[in-house]
Amino acid sequence: MRGAGARRWHGGGMELHCDTCARLRVFEKPACTDHPRSSCPDWACTACGAAIVVAPVILLMDRRPRVLLRRAA
């Protein structure tokens, strides 16, 4: 598989593009003690430790730029 969207399961992790390593690397889910569920939503590169942080949809929606509408007088 090639390209930005290429993903392959690799043992306990998934092969994704790492921006720090600038190549395809295996990413695994780290142990997460502060997350209410048993598994963390984030992924960490097994080579350099860089993380892909996955934010909930609600947090992403709050970051949208505000559009101000003004009416002509």
Automatic annotation (TrEMBL):
Organism superkingdom: Bacteria
Name used for this protein in its record: Uncharacterized protein
